[in-house]
Each structure stands twice: as structure tokens, then as C-alpha cells.
Amino acid sequence: MAIKVEIDSHSGFCGGVIRAITKAEDYLSQGGRLYSLGAIVHNEAELNRLGSQGLVTVDSLDRVPEGGTVLIRAHGESQAVLDALMGRGVEVVNTTCPFVSRAQELAHSLSEEGYHVVLLGDRNHPEIRGIMGYVSGPLDVVADEATILTRFRELIGFLPANNESYAGEDCSDDLNRVNPEIAGCAGDTSVALSILADDNNFFEVKKNYAKQMVTGFLRLNGMTIGAVANRSEICDEDGKVAEKMDAVLTRQGCEKAADFVNFCDAFGIPVLTLTNVKGYEATMDSEKGIARAAAKLTYAFANATVPKVNVILDKAYGTAYVAMNSKTLGADITIAWPEAQIGTMDSKLAAKIMYDGQGADVIGEKAKEYAKLQDSALSAAKRGYVDYIIAPADTRKYVIGAFEMLYSKREDRPAKKHGTV
């Protein structure tokens, strides 16, 4: 007997979603109200059916009333969200798909073992966002195969064949381009680097790991340059500040920057730094490894023999500034913006220490004196720590000129095997 088989274009819900719906129905059958963090299923008819039984879809924890019950859908949530729910004292119905739970556990264990975790998928998908929350170390999220290969080609296009090859191309951009808008980018230095780059093309690497430190490649007058920069703000597509951070060095940021500087030095790629840092992150977790990480960063800059240019955008205080490619570590050229603050510590803090017990007026006056004598770009230039003080709008042409001057740099070091840091 002949059997005709027809394959439907829609196979229904996956096992994880069916499991979540079943658990939701079991709870709702008891007469309670259930709040789902995000849509439990991408089907309007099914959402309406469950809604009539008491399922309410919300997009944030703020919309869950005190004492309410929250459903975690099959996509799962990050550990941070689960902790926040526990802190609010709400009841949780966790319907995370077992396969998703396994992926979360695997990502967490690999990260704890020191692996660089790469997730394949859309970073805006709730399942991927949830898994990302279980990764504490280096993380990259990549999309489809075509996008991955395109990004690989773009990255490889910046790199030379070896340490003696020239990595560059013809430049059609204006070398003397003036950019007054860069003055407002001391916080989000990824934007500043995009403004400086030829054709505004800045290729950022490890973008979502240690966001206080920006690393990536750009071209200046066609020549590939490796960039390392402190970041205290993240701007959205509209140019508005979406996230703020302290202008400090973190353990992860130091390690990220050190590895990048070592990579650039191995391939003979010049290094540009944009400095805006006032100290070190002071947390229990950071203090466990910040000394070693800062030493690693300091050693990476001091050990690098490629051309090194440092631009001080705003704050440059203490040993955190020293670690960020300072003159002390061998920066070939240091450039500062006029309002940059360069010194041991903030002038107000210094005045409070030196004039302890004095009134606010005295401390304010002495802080101004200290800032002028010790913390200004001009005072640093007088002491030989800064080579040029320039208007922010002229940064591109001065940086290009600096690297052009250092193009033939060759630095011979005493013979040795390797360092131990």
C-alpha cells in the first residue's frame, strides 16, 4: 500500500517551550497570577490563551509586584537576574530548558578554567544574553558563518605577514582633518578612536570583555596602528551616554591591554594609547589580582620596542597613569589636551591631606594652587613628561605626524631569552 508523507512547514513548539507552557499551566490551574520575564512563546494566539488564564508578560523586574511569582522561560536568564529575583523575595518558577542550562554550566566552567569563550548566535537573543551572564572571563559573541568570515577577513586585513612586513594601504582621507567633536569623547574612547581613524574605521577587539579598556586596530595615513584606551562611558547609537564606569584600571582590563600590546609588539605594529585614568578598581575581587595584572601591563609597555605614542585626554593620576604607556615606561611621544590633569593625585585630595583641619575656603584655594603647580598639562610639560599640548580638534594630524616621525624607529635591547612577568 502506498503511503503519502507530507512535511509541514511548521513543526510546532520545541520541547523546551512545551515544557515551559506545561509548568505555567500547572501553576495557573491553582488560580494564581504568573509573571513571565519576556514572552514564553513566540505565538500570539498561545500568549492570548495563557493570558486569559492569568499569565502576564513583563519586560523588566520593576513590573513584578512585591510577593508576585515570576516565570523564567525556556531561554533562561543570567545568574545576575536570578540573584536579583532572590533579593526581591519573589517566588520563581524556573522553566529553563535543560539544554540551555547545560550550555550555561559549560560556559561558566570553561570561563573559570581560563578559556576564552566564543558563543555562536545573536547577542540580542535572550538565550545568548543569559549564557553570557555566566561567563566571567574573555568572551566573544559571533553570528552566522558569513558574518564570522567577514570579520576574520577584516581583522586579517589590518595585520602584516610578519614582524618585518609593512601593514598598510593607500590613504584617501584628509591627513589634516580637524575634528572638534572629539573633545566630548574623553569618556567613550572607542568613539574617539573611530573619529581619529582613516575613514572613521576602527576595528575593536574583545569589545564586550573588560569594557573599561578599549583595544583594537585603526589606520592612520594608511598605516596599521594598535590602540589601547581607557573608557569611562559607553554611548549608544544616538550618541547619548548609556553606561558610566569609573575611570580606573581593572584586573581584566590590564590583562586585556597587556595581551594586546604583546601581540602588537610581536607583529611590529605601532601602539597608540588614549589615557584617562585616576587609579585602580577597589573591590574584593579586583584586589586579588590587580597587582599582578598591573605589573603585566607595565611590563608589556616597557618591553615593547615598536613606536609608542600616548595621548592624555583628561585624568592621568599616580601609578595607574604610569602603567598606561607613560614616558617612564618608554613612550616615544606624549601628547596632552590643554585641560588634562597629570600628577600624583587629584588636587582637592592633595589639599585635604596637606591642610588637614583647615576650612573649606583654605582647602579650595590650596587645591587650585596645587592643580596649577602639579596637576596641569603645562606643569607636566615643564618637567619633561609631555612633549606637545594640543587642541583636541588637532589630535589626528599630530598623532599621524608622531608616527611618521617614528616610522624608522629601531630599538636594540641587551641580549636575553625572555622576561618572567
Written account of the structure:
This protein has 421 residues and is α/β, with parallel strands linked by helices. The chain is built from 15 helices and 18 strands. Helix 5 (126-132) links the parallel strand 5 and strand 6. Helix 4 (98-112) runs parallel beside helix 5. The longest helix has 17 residues, at 251-267. It is globular.
The main β sheet shows up as: 8 strands, mixed
- Number of DSSP E strands: 18
Q: Rg, please? A: 27 Å
What share of residues is helical? 25-40%
Q: What is the terminal separation in angstroms?
A: 76 Å
**Unreliable sequence segments:** none
The secondary structure category is alpha/beta
Could you tell me the mean pLDDT?
A: 88
**Overall spatial form:** globular
Helix count, per DSSP?
A: 15
Estimate what percentage of residues fall within beta strands. Answer: 15-25%
Quickly describe the structure.
This protein is α/β, with parallel strands linked by helices and 421 residues long.
Q: How would you summarize the topology of this molecule?
A:
Elements: H1 15-28, E1 34-37, H2 44-53, E2 55-58, E3 69-72, H3 79-88, E4 91-94, H4 98-112, E5 117-120, H5 126-132, E6 139-142, H6 145-158, H7 189-196, E7 202-205, E8 213-220, E9 223-230, E10 233-235, E11 241-244, E12 248-249, H8 251-267, E13 271-277, E14 279-280, H9 284-287, H10 290-303, E15 308-317, H11 318-323, E16 333-336, E17 341-343, H12 347-354, H13 360-375, H14 377-382, E18 388-389, H15 395-405
Parallel strand pairs: 1-2, 1-3, 3-4, 5-6, 9-13, 12-14, 13-15, 15-16, 15-17, 16-18
Antiparallel strand pairs: 7-8, 8-9, 10-11
Helix pairs in contact: 4-5, 8-10, 12-13
